[in-house]
Amino acid sequence: MAPEGHGGGDLLHVVVLLGAAVVAVPLFRRLGLGSVLGYLTAGLVIGPSGLGLFDDPASILHVAELGVVMFLFAIGLEMEPSRLWSLRQDIFGLGLVQVLGCGLLMTGVAVAAGFDLKVAFIAAMGFVLSSTAIVMQILEERGEVSTAAGQRVVAILLLEDLAIVPLLAMIPLLAPAGPAGDGTSRALAFAIAVGAVVALVVVGRWLLNPLFRVLAQARAREVMTAAALLVVLGAALLMQLGGLSTAMGAFLAGVLLSESAFRHELEADVEPFRGILLGLFFLGVGMALDVPLVLRDWPVILGGVAVLMLVKAAGIYGVARLLGSEHREALTRASLLAQGGEFAFVLYAASAAAGVLDGGTNATLTATVIVSMAVTPLAVAAVHRLLPAEGQSFDGVEPARDLRASVLIIGFGRFGQVVSQGLLARGIDVAIIDKDTEAIRNAAKFGFLVYYGDGTRLDVLRASGAAEVQAILICVDDASAADHIVALAKAEFSQAKLYVRAYDRGHALRLIEARVDAHVRETFESALALSGKTLEGLGVPPEDVEEVLEDVRRRDVERLRLELADGFGAGRDLLHRNAPTPTPFTPPKRKARPLSPETASVVVEDAREGARDDDPQSAREQQPGS
Fold first, then answer.
1. What is the CA angle 366-367-372, rounded to 5?
2. Whole-model pTM?
């Protein structure tokens, strides 16, 4: 039993935090609501407005902000300087236009609602700064960080992180009264900020790689982990001392190390801390929601959330469309970025300390931002479900119609492209169809004429000339679609030989039973080729390599024959395996003694029972679940 006291209470808090996350996050992900909303809800339940297990969420948020810092460091590791430079137009073009446009719109709305101009400006600009943590988590869960649309969102978030610097610098100008010498102090603060950035670049560019090289030679794994944390936290501290964003410091450190030979090791070292602390941050945000305040001022807070999110979303959508984004991408971006973010807490707190905001307004604005953060996963899920399935553009694409050729290729992905080369090299007339319009347009850039058509439809096959071709090559990457095309071709186009791409071994067996003319498993020969190259690299003579590969091919063919006769999995003894084969126990020989007639009859009966147990059919019947 834990002793009463401070240590036991701290341990209880840790257990509660972990337990809340373990219960809520899988549940919300299973419901399709995402992990962020699960963390926020768990924090609300265990926080001061829920079960009251925590009474100081601000202290938890202060520690958990390190999760955001490490998250930005991990993002920076993926951003080589050349890649970041390629985003400069999105960062300082799209990002700047969006921040200024949304800030102007929302300031106007706040003034119309009766706020003083200074208060309206601070309230609006705090809400303009979206939550990097929530947006990046959603993008990562959906696998969209590296897409073109995702990269534009990342660029906007980077500009918003930069925007906190001039916004904080403007607070003394908006304060009711300031001490003399403010201009000098601001100039000094600006010089310190520039010096901090220069110092970080110098250290990251010329000192960090030699440091990690020395640590790697020491072969102390725990020291490398400590060094990774030192880099992240040191960069954040340097930016904080310079009056800049800690997250921006971590991001710059990641960018400077993105081309390092130790990049992947650093990413692996930071990952466990990043995940735990980022989850703790979301828990802290949920705890910080003042439910009594929301209940007391719910018309103001919920109305503010609705109006500010709608106005911001409209501004984001308008800027996106103005700068050339399609409707779908613009709407998705608007749902992702419509909330306020963690930097709003910093801006509002600094404004309250300077006297620009009073305590009540600060609390109301903070609650508004937290509610908007909690609503965001729901808004993103709703938009995603309401949007129709993404359609294909048929610009520059011709449908299959009255094609004439000797060979018809169905499916022109990577497999089909390679298959076509041997035929085209011999001057054979080839017709090609595919149902992916983007792939068709890409193929056209390389000089291929590919027609649009779904090979699983009989009318499309007829329009593609299947009734007259000598051979049909089915190169689609969907095994069920390939089976359907084989059935159609067998029934309607018996003059054509069928050559089919097999997805795996089970698919290959189905194709053999369908009596296609030939099939090739899509990975078999390429895997054998790599095996052969490896053997050659290990010094095996080329003639021996070829002999080995032929042995593998022969065994594979034999296995297929056995599987056709006895079912999938038969012939597994033909595989070369690396698991040790147990040596059967052989008891020591003893002098045989004559058996009595009664004993002999028992042994014979036991042998018969053993023979029945060894029968393959009997064994299959006795296996659980067979």
1. 100
2. 0.54
